[in-house]
Amino acid sequence: MKLPAALETFADREHVFEFMARGSRVPRLDVSHNVILYLEDITVAFDGFRALNDLTLYVDAGELRCIIGPNGAGKTTMMDVITGKTRPDSGSAWFGQTIDLLQLDEPEIAAAGIGRKFQKPTVFTEHSVFENLELAMAGDKRVWRILFAKLTPAQIERIESVLETIGLKDQRDARAGSLSHGQKQWLEIGMLLMQDPQLLLVDEPVAGMTPQETERTAELLLGLAGKHSVVVVEHDMAFVRSIARKVTVLHEGSVLAEGSLDEVQNNAKVVEVYLGE
Amino acid sequence: MHTPLLKTLLTERGSQVFLGVLIVTAILVPLLNLAVPADSALHVSTYTVTLLGKYLCYALLAIAVDLVWGYCGILSLGHTAFFALGGYAMGMYLMRQIGTRGVYGDPVLPDFMVFLNWSELPWYWHGFDMFWFAMLMVVLAPGALAYVFGWFAFRSRVTGVYLSIITQALTFALLLAFFRNEMGFGGNNGLTDFKDLLGFDLQADATRIGLFLATAFALGGGYVACRAIAASRAGRVIRAIRDAEGRARFIGYRVESYKLWLWTFSAVLAGIAGALYVPQVGIINPGEFAPINAIEIVIWVAVGGRGTLYGAVLGALVVNYAKTWFTGAFPEVWLYALGALFVLVTLFLPQGIVGLLARARKTA
């Protein structure tokens, strides 16, 4: 039997109607101009102190970018603006060409494809390593869906493969709170991977790590670049040297210099405010 | 951990013990009351049956508080509001059942309205002559209040002690409102002098047994429902919110929706507990809204051990048994004993009695 054309969409099991589309408030990510993050003239002031001062910064799709700068340069505030925790007083922040980050809140931004790793490792300490990854998994996160959600074999396989990547296979069922500092950092990177974001914001990933752990982390992050865009904020210059292709130096809330690490290190202004100290 | 609910219930020690004891009690108590002659040593008096029924209502209320506090970190000091609203909904039905048997013999108006010279039933009393409508209200009234309250509170990201304080304010405000005669809920006397429920005489032994069984059933059902939520992925999200709310948000969970949903469910459980409580004690008055009662529930949960559900049940039973005994033997000491208990548990037994038992089993 042939259905009238108008009814055909109703018979199509795969068809997703506009009003049913998840997160319809958030348009699809579009990086056709090869830039994934646009921050333009962002200013954030706390009681008159300008944490960010006309900050303008672009990150390319698939890039691994390091951001350095002295304490108080505005690195964490910048991450807060991108993830929706802090609203800027002025300026614009776009994720790709289509998504205006300033219109969205934290869960919407996370769903749009931006993942964040905090400076202090924050994993769910009372859950097992496996459960931490399960919780971070990309997908519909509304209450009713999650209440009846069951792990599919494909999802379990995905979690196992991330466990392998972050080297925590043997700690699969351990309480996350019992992990060492370095392992917690990796678990958090693993949780970012489960979210499968387009853009990863990583805040001081090697703080407090042993040299071996630092090396392992550098490998992890390098493995991510290309498939994902990664922005790393870090103080450890040796670590930055080992991973960075392009470095941005922040100072007093705006960009002071940008380029390869060597270029930046030879920049007179940078030497004056930061490296020369 | 990733096992189906039934398997969880059958393998988890605390759930096994709790459900086992509940089922045995639900079978034995009616038998010992109805089948054993009154002069036998094994006879359970109807007074005891009702007292047990009352304790089971408290246990259900404790589970409701443990669900939000132990699993999601929302310390509610206002669950009495939902408990009492459920109780009032049931009380209104029972009042309408009295009919012409009241002191003033008015077929429609409850006695207190006749006493206040009211000529007709306020609009919100309509429908309560029907059992199904009253039962709907038992669920809807606390549920709707919790939903509206939670919607504002969680969306504004009110957490911690601030949230506890406004829950306390909520129940206190309702206490004051229900004290007023103009509210139409019987003022400070509340609703009482109930005669029968669905045609069964409330004073009859069989009705008492029926109410006891209904309460045991509600407690068992509430327990299984809470356990199911805790064992689901939503349960893991809820515990994640308790431990690191900001992190859960950055992973993409809409924290306020989870809290609101859990909070409302918990309020409905508390309302059901209240509705079962009222016909067994025979009265509902604004005293049930008292903030001190709400704090007492938190003590039950803390004493039993929070975040386990069966710990909440145990705490409710132990503390209430102690209360019954103390207020009989040394009435003036009870509040001091309660306060001391709370301090001691907080200092020495952060996991409550359940935690103590678990530790004892490990070292044994």
TrEMBL record, chain A:
GO terms for molecular function: ATP binding; ATP hydrolysis activity. InterPro entries: ABC_AA/LPS_Transport, ABC_transporter-like_ATP-bd, ABC_transptr_urea_ATP-bd_UrtD, BCA_ABC_TP_C, P-loop_NTPase. The keyword ATP-binding applies. Keywords: ATP-binding, Nucleotide-binding, Transport. SUPFAM superfamilies: P-loop containing nucleoside triphosphate hydrolases. One of its GO terms (cellular component) is plasma membrane. The keyword tRNA-binding does not apply. Residues 37-277 form the ABC transporter domain. This is Urea transport system ATP-binding protein. It comes from Sinimarinibacterium flocculans.
Automatic annotation (TrEMBL), chain B:
Coiled coil: none annotated. It holds the Pfam family BPD_transp_2. Keywords: Cell membrane, Membrane, Transmembrane, Transmembrane helix. It is a multi-pass membrane protein. GO terms for molecular function: branched-chain amino acid transmembrane transporter activity. This is Amino acid/amide ABC transporter membrane protein 2 (HAAT family). It is found in: Cell inner membrane. CDD domains: TM_PBP1_LivM_like. It comes from the Bacteria. Its main location: membrane. The chain crosses the membrane at residues 17-36, 48-71, 77-95, 131-154, 161-179, 209-230, 260-277, 297-321, 333-358. GO terms for cellular component: plasma membrane.
